[in-house]
Amino acid sequence: MSGLDARLRQLIRQDVQSMHAYAVQDSAGMVKLDAMENPHRLPAALQDALGKRLGALALNRYPDGRVNDLRHALAAYAQMPAGFDIMLGNGSDELISLLALACAVPSCAGNECQRASVLAPVPGFVMYAMSAQLQGLDFHGVPLTADFELDEAAMLTAIAQHKPVITYLAYPNNPTANLWNDAVIEKIILAVGEQGGLVVLDEAYQPFSSKSYIDRLARHSHVLLMRTLSKFGLAGVRLGYMMGPQALIAEIDKVRPPYNISVLNCECALFALEHHEIFATQALDLRTQRAIILEALGILPGVRAYPSDANMILVRVPDAQKTFDGLKAHKILVKNVSKMHALLANCLRLTVGTAEENTQMLAALKESL
Known about the structure:
alpha/beta, Aspartate Aminotransferase, domain 1, 15 strands
């Protein structure tokens, strides 16, 4: 924080001063394959229709009951179980922060109190740890196995030791893109339930996945299911949603800021759901492109591509930084995740793009290895 007056620096929490801000790579002039975005835009006719609809909104008024129309539309689209409710967030990031805020309950024995904790497999989505730290909870990351599967024994031991108030399971995981074993997930859910904690199944990449937990959600009263419209095709809209038992959602929803979903975000999401078949076609195309990329990566010497149920592919190369720099020199921007965790040594994360973008990426990758 160089340049900040010393007296003002004293006002900022020390742990915040030691943090790094979330970095967004400069993508100007690049083929952007670094952030798991849907590369397809709305057809021109729908762009015009949406523009007229947004232009007619009363931007001088706070959001109203239209947000409830969106909640009901999302519940129907996701086939939410009976007896459950849905909560909206400004992206899943806000929902993750609100969960930490709502669940920051210390455990006390006598005069000794311990901070509440959040637990998740690592490597995983960085916001799980960041939200815990910012809300005053401890974060415990449990390493995956060498092939990015859940370490059942380690997870169960960590749950028993730390008694987390929230355990996150990404389904599929970011950045590894894989689905974990369902039987192991059920054991973890049961173990967390016995300790009195919550489990959050994060299905951010559901449009590209071969499975969902939605049909099993009603089995447990302590499991929440979180999704986002970012991967659906609305990354710029910033809209996440979380489903869970009505009484549980009602309590968590109390910490949600009023009017957290703008009228523009709300109307964009409703419009997209009305045309969900367009986005389903786009998702099908990306799943097809994913298979083409995986086949091409499989014959590249020195490259190991891991199985994917998302719109990204994790690859291990001989030298991640050299390959990343080579791709960037060819105007291809991917994500270098090699420093995120020891298990990701020399790994890059490739977003699945359009057919043309993927062809360019594969050609540049061959040149850059």
